[in-house]
């Protein structure tokens, strides 16, 4: 698109189906690199990627000709197939339906980058459920709790 200029920064968050902690530390870097390849091949810019065994955060610089839902669908579909075909998980792997997407200004890039890179440290004091609900509140996103991810008491996991 000639003469189109933009700066769109989006943090994408989604969980493993049933919040099962299937992403293991011995292969998480493989899946992050694989997802990086998907994003790059779709001509988007990866800024940060990280997560925990039960969810992932992806921070991208997005071009205006990209459809976010299509990009996330491709990331989920391709990475699920990769994980299952490579037998990285001992169990059948799937992502949960849906995702969160939160936009940021250029001045917030470093803070969001640091937040995502420090996910493991951050989640020592806050559960994924608390974090996700905080995002929804902070960004004033209307939601119905029955349509959110499947939540389990942290003590049940």
Topology of helices and strands:
Blueprint: E1 8-15, H1 28-41, E2 45-52, E3 55-62, H2 68-85, E4 100-104, H3 109-117, H4 119-122, H5 128-138
Antiparallel strand pairs: 1-3, 1-4, 2-3
Instruction: Specify the CATH architecture.
Output: 2-Layer Sandwich
Number of helices: 5
Helix content: 25-40%
Large-scale geometry: globular
Q: Output the structural class.
A: alpha+beta
Task: Determine the mean pLDDT.
Answer: 91
Strand content: 15-25%
Radius of gyration: 16 Å
Taking pLDDT < 50 over at least 5 consecutive residues as the criterion, the unreliable ranges are none
Strand order of the largest sheet: 2-3-1-4
Order of helices and strands: EHEEHEHHH
Predict the CATH topology.
Alpha-Beta Plaits
Query: How many individual domains?
Result: 1
Distance between the termini: 48 Å
Largest sheet: 4 strands, antiparallel
Concise summary:
The protein has 157 residues and is α+β, with helices and mostly antiparallel strands. The protein is built from five helices and four strands; from the N terminus they run βαββαβααα.
């Amino acid at each position: 698109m000639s003469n189109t200029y933009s700066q769109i920064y989006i943090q994408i968050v989604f969980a493993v189906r049933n919040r099962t902690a299937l992403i293991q530390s011995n292969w998480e870097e493989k899946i992050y690199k694989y997802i990086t390849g998907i994003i790059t091949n779709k001509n988007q810019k990866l800024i940060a990627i990280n997560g925990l065994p039960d969810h992932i955060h992806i921070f991208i610089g997005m071009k205006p000709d990209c459809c976010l839902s299509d990009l996330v669908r491709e990331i989920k579909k391709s990475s699920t197939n990769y994980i299952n075909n490579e037998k990285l998980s001992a169990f059948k792997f799937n992502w949960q339906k849906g995702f969160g997407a939160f936009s940021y200004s250029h001045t917030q890039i470093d803070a969001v980058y640091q937040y995502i890179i420090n996910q493991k440290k951050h989640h020592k004091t806050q559960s994924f459920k608390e974090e996700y609900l905080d995002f929804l509140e902070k960004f004033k996103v209307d939601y119905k709790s029955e349509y959110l991810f499947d939540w389990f008491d942290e003590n049940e996991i």
